[in-house]
Every structure is written in structure tokens, then in C-alpha cells.
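Quick one: structure for this chain?
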Amino acid sequence: MQGNLILGCSGWNYPDTPDKGGWTGIFYPEKSTKRLHYYSQIFNTAEIDSTFYHRFYSKMTRGTFIGMARATPEKFQFSIKVPETITHRKRLSIDKGAIIDLEEFLDKISPLKEANKLGAVLIQLPPSFTVDDFIDIEGFLDRLPRLNSNTHYYHYAIEFRHPSWNTEGPWEMLKQYNIAAVITDSPAKENLQFLSNIIVTADHSFVRFHGRNIKDHYWYNYLYSQQELDSWMNKISEIRSQAKILRIYFNNHYGGNAIMNALQFKEMILGSALSKNEQEALKRAEKYIAVQKQQLKLD
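Got it. Here's what it folds into:
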């Protein structure tokens, strides 16, 4: 068995030029390009991180997600991060209303589910949330809404961000609820290498490539080398043999690095040529980055 591969980037709305961290020139032809429509012609999924931030999420409505569903092809899907109010402020506390907030969140994004375009619901825990909080997380997971109808289950995924979770208990807990443990590639100084191991706790799996930048906290300002991507190939094959669906997102979005790495990685996994649109997008990104590297040498 080889699980269905769904691969894309974390976000798409990066209108600036690469020198300012954006994607115009390396991916989007112009700043005025309709970015989601353009992006969805190359990739079959995107991760929505903006819902995590209250300053953005508070301005979103059901109409926001109706628009996303309409702007993308039939089989496109969005994985979406739950708001920081739930994970970081209320820290999954039932007593503080975390489940009520989650139910409101699921209702707001329901147009994606109704359009069959909702991928995984990502629950990213704060770095301060340790294994000592085990009771809180178990109580929260026990109350998670499972269905939005009689037949459509939510795919939940949890990302641990503290090394204390490197023990058997959490994985067994997630297996019980069929929740994916998020597998990550992160900077070594974060001590999260255990999350780069093969951890399959559900019939769906979730991998995030954050980048390995250690100069500051902006992990995502990083371009993976071919060798670094190649080191993941056996892991990906093993995960796909165990899970029906594997979702992979490249979060090293700064300057369009995610575009190049995501397409390179897809070609490596499939072992065959990309589509014409994908090939053109990859060549454009590679050419842009090559020119920038040459310019740096000249300077």
C-alpha cells in the first residue's frame, strides 16, 4: 500500500518580492496575480496558518472560507491550524471553554468541509506545553467533535513542541483517538529531533518541514539541499506504507524556498517527471535562486 500523497506549502499569500520574503518573481508573475487561484494550479493543497493569529482570525467569516473553496479546483484541500486562543491562551482547558471555541472554529470553516476541501485540523501546542500537561490534553481530546455529519470525520493532527513528549504515552493516546502525531523537520537547537522519526498514530499522517535556520528564530528562512531532502525518502516511503493519506507541507516559505523544495521533493517521491506546469514553476524558482546566489558572489 502507498498512501495518497497530498503535498504543498504553508500559506500562499506572500505578495512581496523574495528579498522581502515574498514569492513575486520566483513564483507569482506579478504582485497583482490572483495568488490562491495561481497556487492551486500547481499544488493540490495548502496549509492555512493565518487562522492561528487572533488579529487575522477575528476578521474572518464563513464567507472567507466560501471564497477559498470557490477559488480552488475540485480536489484541492486545505489543512488549517486552530486559533491560538485554544492552544496558547486557554491551553486546551475544558474549564476555560477551549472546546466551545473549537466548535465555533469548526463552524466558521465548515464551508471547506461542505465542499470536501478540508484536510487536517492542526493543533499546534505551545513550546511551554509539556508532558506534565498530559491530563489536560487527554480531557480535550476526549471531547473533540468527531463528525460534521454521519459519514464525514475530521482529521485531527497534533504537533508537540517540547522534548518531554518523547515517550510512549502520547503516541498510544493519539492512536486511541486516531489523531496524527505531526512529524517535523526543525532546527537542531530546538531538541525536537524525535519528531523526525517515523510516528504513525492514525490512518492519516502529517509532515511539516519548518526549515533549519539557527541564526535567529525564523526557522523558515531556509532552503533545503537535495541531500537533506533525500535523507527523508525512506521515512516517507515507510509512512505511506502505514497511512492511507500523507499530507506534507513545506513551511520554509521565506523568499519562495518552499516552492522549490516542495516541487523537488514531490518529484523525488514520485520518481517520475512533474506535470508541465510544475516543471515550469520549479525551473523558474531554480533559475531565480541561482541568479541570486551568483549576485551574492559578485557582491
